Amino acid sequence: METVNALGRRKSAIARIYVNEGKGKIVVNNRAFEEYFPLQQTQNIIQQPLTIAEAGNKYDITVNLKGGGTTGQAEALRLALARAMVKINPETREALKAVKLLTRDPREVERKKAGRPGARKRFQFSKR
């Protein structure tokens, strides 16, 4: 099997992954997966596509992450992994699609407007 690459985005985070056959090692920005994402919750988010596609220890995954925070990066990585699993084995598409792992979350941060303290917030109104 040659290298399979995929891209995932969420908020302002971008995840580029490269999947090779191996023993299930995940390397994120030249660091171990558990070291980069210490919270168990984010680790579970990332491993969702692997458990659904039943590819837990079959592939070595190298990840380049840029932008965003930990949650955005974790969800971008989840989307990239789901897309890579479909490239490797197209039969997993229905299972991943049923759990909505192949849909990119389009929500972005709304920009701050001029003359206001935030995107929608207004300064306190004073009658007198």
The CATH class is Alpha Beta
Largest sheet: 5 strands, mixed
Query: How do the strands line up in the largest sheet?
Result: 1-2-5-3-4
Give the total of domains: 1
The helix content, as a percent range, equals 25-40%
H/E element string?
EEEEHHEHH
| Class computed from helices, strands and strand pairing | alpha+beta
Number of helices: 4
What is the distance, rounded to the nearest whole angstrom, between the alpha carbons of the first and last residues?
73 Å
- Identify low-pLDDT runs: none
Roughly how many Å is the radius of gyration?
18 Å
Quaternary organization? single chain
State the CATH architecture. Answer: 2-Layer Sandwich
Strand content: 15-25%
Based on the model shown, name its key terms.
alpha+beta; 4 helices; Ribosomal Protein S5, domain 2; 128 residues; 5-stranded mixed sheet
Can you characterise this structure?
With 128 residues, the protein is an alpha+beta fold. The chain has one domain: Ribosomal Protein S5, domain 2, CATH 3.30.230.10. The protein is 33% helix and 23% strand. It contains four helices and five strands, in the order ββββααβαα. The protein has helices at 33-36, 40-52, 70-88, 93-98, and strands at 4-10, 13-21, 26-28, 31-32, 59-66. The radius of gyration is 18 Å and the shape is elongated. The termini are far apart. The mean pLDDT is 93.
